[in-house]
């Protein structure tokens, strides 16, 4: 299954082409989604660090709450497991004498891989960031009063 990139992300990355635009995109308000209460402390910190920045560049909309929550949850689990593993051995010996990997190593690796998949979806990986082209904010149109003032005061 192929997932289309959002038009806003294409524009930021500089890959948007009007000749390939099907004009079927949905215009969504640039409203900040609320951080889910079920996220852990590390995940909430990551949400607070990223959400505003993603919204400000036009990537994050309120409907993207689940995607950002999944990224932050994966990040939080990865961080917590990585910290725990600093104080634990990477392997242990079973009752039968077999040396087995610490299960937390696999859990941390899975959380990291999940986090990186969501990061790519949100434009957060180093390679995705390298393709970002931030457009200058649009110049606001002059009000009618300003247009009249400009006409009267032309040289």
Radius of gyration: 23 Å
Counted by DSSP, the helix tally is 6
Count of discrete domains: 1
**How far is the first residue's CA from the last residue's CA?**
60 Å
Topology, number of strands:
2
- The arrangement of helices and strands along the chain is HHHEEHHH
Largest sheet: 2 strands, antiparallel
Strand order of the largest sheet: 1-2
Globally, the shape reads: elongated
Strand content: under 5%
Report the helical percentage. Answer: 40-55%
Give the integer mean of the pLDDT values: 83
As an assembly, this protein is: single chain
Structural class by secondary-structure content? mainly alpha
Low-confidence stretches: none
Overall description:
The chain starts with 6 loop residues before the first helix and ends with a helix. The chain has one domain. The protein has helices at residues 7-13, 41-56, 65-85, 103-121, 126-130, 144-152, and strands at residues 91-93, 99-101. Helix 2 packs across helix 3 (65-85) and helix 3 packs antiparallel against helix 4 (103-121). The model has no long low-confidence stretch (mean pLDDT 83). The longest helix is centred in the middle third of the chain and has 21 residues, at 65-85. Strand 1 (91-93) and strand 2 form a beta hairpin. The chain is mainly alpha-helical and 155 residues long. The chain has a two-stranded antiparallel sheet. It has 6 helices and 2 strands.
């Amino acid at each position: 299954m192929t997932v289309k990139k959002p038009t806003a992300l294409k524009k930021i990355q500089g890959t948007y082409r009007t000749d390939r635009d099907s004009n079927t995109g949905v215009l969504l308000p640039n409203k900040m989604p609320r951080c889910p209460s079920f996220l852990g402390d590390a995940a909430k910190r990551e949400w607070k660090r990223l959400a505003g920045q993603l919204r400000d560049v036009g990537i994050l909309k309120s409907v993207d709450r689940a995607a950002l929550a999944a990224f932050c949850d994966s990040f939080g689990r990865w961080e917590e497991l990585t910290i725990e593993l600093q104080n634990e051995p990477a392997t242990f010996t079973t009752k039968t004498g077999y040396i087995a990997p610490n299960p937390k190593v696999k859990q941390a690796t899975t959380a990291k891989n999940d986090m990186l998949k969501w990061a790519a979806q949100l434009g957060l990986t180093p390679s995705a960031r390298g393709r970002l082209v931030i457009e200058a904010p649009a110049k606001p149109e002059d009000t009618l009063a300003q247009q009249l003032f400009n006409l009267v005061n032309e040289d």
